[in-house]
Structure to design on (740 residues):
């Protein structure tokens, strides 16, 4: 290479920001690769130095650098061999035309690359610097950083020669693309979460909020930079000190601090926000505080709503049974004297029958509001379920209790029942128990008040009575509580037994239709059976009915799910009002079915008017969910209440079980026959099976058969027996049929 070209090349490479010691024998001109000989720069490469042309060529090759030399007068452009190899070409494979690089440049990058060179030649920029893509020999694109500039001018100062270097930055561009994808996902996640980003420079005191942060604080500003003390002006006075302390806590550490606090926006709105704060060390000594901010107001409101719903009755807004029990337990344990009031509404069922459930709801809300209005400071009211309420009154004397009881009775009598119940009034029976012993259980406290309430009912209703321990000892006043506790023990230690009673088809000869109503019997500590009438009412009174129903369902399906699946028989379960109102009931039933393999179609549920009237909406919802799963639903004790036909209209049931009171004397009572005939006709028109309950006499059976009643149940047809025995007999019958 002639000395003048060496000098130009050195100036060009130096202008591109690269070392000025330059190899020879690596320029490509036309079809010939370079100039022969070894070149050394005048800046100090001594004669005989081992860093010859081959050495520098290898260095440039390893660095993925390609050199170009463009003579503007002749139009010739020389390319280094390393430039050709960077694109996958060997010696002689590329013709060194002046527009070779442009032919290899990606179409989308050509205008930008040309503009960069034109701007530099015109003196508008100090150098050429642009990124572009060149086509590799195998067809893919190589990203390069092109840097260079004018190395020679004519006497008039006009550029006549340019030189430069192209660096392979493909990996860098791939990393940038990957980083951009991460950033896109990050920005999308931030947008979806509604999170804002901010940072505060400790040294300068400057703060910067992104758009989302400004939106959360209701700040209207075009710039990210905000006054350093702006954030403090938004803080709620009650949260200011804690929030400021939390934001200073991570300084100098690497931990992330989470803090929730309230802000007051300029429009007066109070919002809850959550910040995550971390200190980030800078090359500068002070560093930065980096944080996020998210508006959690709606979450806070939902938390409050859920917390309120978990503790309060949805209809009246009073404490629910679970919350009241917990509160009562806490107050008893404190040892401070208190009074427990048990309030049971009189004539409420009649109101429901007369005016409907909507009127019943109006009445319950009005009664609840009236009772709350009577309470002294520190007292609490709860709805235990249905038409039963309880009050907890601390430091209540005999005189205070009497006055409050009379006020509650008056509030019930004066309750607004709505236009649908015009002319009707409610009354209440109130029981009062004074609790002074800190070891008294919640169940015993409520049992005492409940027993006093029953005493008030027995004395004529619309009055109150005070629990007397002396009287209770003679009448078994605490017996219900003991029975309830014994029921829990029986469920836990295997003293509950499953029984069943078959439903028969009333054909020529009654035969089992392989449908069995599941019943429960408790085995007393003395080994004798305790009938359901002795423990189920106590379970309902003390909130154990739902737990008992769940035990029965799980036990029956666990033991006999396989037989139900294979034998074509079905089991029916009675549900209490508490169970019908349980929002997790179907989740439980579906789980048991999944565990046991019992088919939905072989499971039936029986609900009574008494259970449905407690929570009509829950009963209606339960029926529809049962039908969705193809479980059977029967209306039990049909006709016993005035709302039976209303339930039949609202509930799409599979079977109607006529109350036994219409069956026992049907052979001799034209009224009973008329009722049964009407129900049978209605059931037939609706496609429902009709089951007559409590068939105990042959004459009743014959009468029912003559009236076309399809199914029956009662002692005449089948007395309840252990469910295991029934299932074993059915299984044996199936085996005999198969053998025959």
């Amino acid at each position: 290479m002639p000395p003048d070209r060496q000098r130009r090349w050195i100036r060009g490479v130096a202008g591109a920001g690269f070392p000025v010691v330059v190899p020879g024998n690596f320029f490509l001109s036309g079809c010939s690769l370079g100039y022969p000989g070894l070149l050394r720069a005048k800046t100090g490469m001594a004669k005989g130095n081992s860093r010859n042309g081959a050495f520098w060529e290898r260095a440039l090759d390893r660095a993925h650098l390609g050199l170009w030399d463009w003579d503007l007068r002749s139009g010739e452009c020389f390319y280094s061999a390393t430039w050709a190899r960077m694109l996958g070409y060997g010696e002689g494979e590329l013709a060194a035309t002046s527009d070779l690089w442009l032919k290899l440049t990606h179409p989308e990058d050509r205008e930008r690359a040309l503009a960069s060179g034109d701007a530099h030649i015109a003196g508008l920029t100090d150098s050429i610097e642009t990124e572009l893509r060149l086509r590799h020999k195998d067809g893919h694109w190589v990203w390069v950083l092109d840097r260079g500039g004018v190395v020679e001018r004519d006497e008039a100062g006009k550029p006549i020669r340019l030189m430069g270097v192209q660096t392979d930055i493909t990996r860098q561009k791939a990393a940038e693309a990957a980083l951009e994808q991460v950033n896109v996902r990050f920005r999308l996640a931030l947008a979806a979460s509604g999170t804002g980003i901010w940072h505060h420079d400790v040294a300068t005191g400057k703060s910067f909020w992104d758009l989302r942060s400004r939106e959360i604080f209701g700040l209207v500003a075009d710039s990210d930079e905000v006054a350093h003390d702006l954030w403090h002006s938004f803080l709620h006075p009650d949260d200011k000190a804690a929030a400021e302390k939390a934001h200073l806590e991570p300084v100098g550490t690497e931990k992330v601090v989470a803090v929730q606090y309230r802000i007051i926006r300029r429009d007066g709105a109070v919002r809850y926000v959550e910040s995550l704060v971390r200190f980030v060390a800078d090359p500068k000594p002070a560093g930065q505080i980096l944080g996020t901010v998210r508006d959690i107001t709606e979450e806070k409101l939902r938390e409050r709503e859920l917390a309120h719903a978990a503790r309060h009755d949805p209809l009246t807004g009073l404490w629910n049974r679970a919350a009241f029990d917990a509160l009562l337990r806490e107050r008893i344990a404190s040892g401070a004297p208190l009074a427990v009031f048990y309030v049971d509404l009189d004539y409420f069922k009649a109101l429901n029958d007369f005016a409907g459930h909507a009127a019943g709801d109006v009445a319950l809300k009005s009664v609840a509001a009236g009772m709350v209005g009577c309470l002294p400071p520190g007292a609490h009211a709860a709805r235990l379920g249905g038409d039963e309420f309880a009050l907890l009154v601390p430091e209540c004397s005999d005189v205070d209790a009497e006055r409050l009881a009379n006020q509650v009775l008056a509030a019930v009598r004066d309750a607004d029942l709505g236009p649908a119940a015009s002319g009707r009034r409610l009354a209440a029976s109130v029981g009062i128990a004074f609790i002074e012993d800190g070891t008294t259980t919640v169940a015993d406290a409520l049992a005492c008040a409940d027993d006093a309430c029953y005493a008030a009912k027995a004395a004529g209703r619309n009055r109150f009575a005070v629990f007397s321990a002396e009287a209770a000892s003679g009448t078994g006043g605490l017996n219900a509580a003991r029975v309830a506790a014994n029921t829990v023990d029986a469920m836990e230690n295997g003293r509950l037994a499953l029984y069943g009673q078959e439903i028969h088809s009333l054909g020529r000869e009654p035969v089992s239709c392989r449908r069995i109503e599941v019943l429960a019997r408790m085995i007393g500590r003395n080994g004798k059976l305790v009938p359901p009438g002795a423990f189920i009412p106590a379970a309902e009174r003390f909130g154990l009915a739902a737990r008992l129903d769940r035990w029965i369902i799980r036990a029956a399906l666990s033991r006999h799910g396989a037989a139900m699946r294979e034998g074509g028989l079905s089991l029916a379960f009675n549900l209490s009002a508490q169970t019908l109102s349980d929002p997790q009931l179907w989740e439980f039933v579906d789980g048991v079915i999944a565990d046991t393999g019992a088919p939905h179609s072989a499971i039936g549920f029986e609900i009574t008017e008494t259970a449905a009237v407690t929570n009509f909406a829950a009963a209606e919802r339960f029926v529809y969910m049962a039908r969705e799963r193809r479980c059977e639903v029967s209306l039990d004790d049909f006709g016993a209440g005035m709302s039976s036909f209303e339930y039949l209209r609202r509930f799409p049931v599979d079977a109607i079980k006529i109350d036994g009171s219409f069956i026992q004397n049907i052979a001799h009572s034209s009224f009973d026959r008329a009722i049964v005939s009407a129900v049978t006709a209605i059931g037939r028109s609706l496609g429902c099976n009709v089951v007559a309950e409590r068939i105990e006499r042959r004459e009743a059976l014959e009468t029912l058969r003559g009236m076309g009643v399809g199914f029956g149940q009662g002692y005449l047809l089948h007395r309840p027996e252990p469910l295991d025995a029934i299932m074993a007999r059915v299984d044996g019958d199936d085996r005999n049929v198969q053998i025959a």
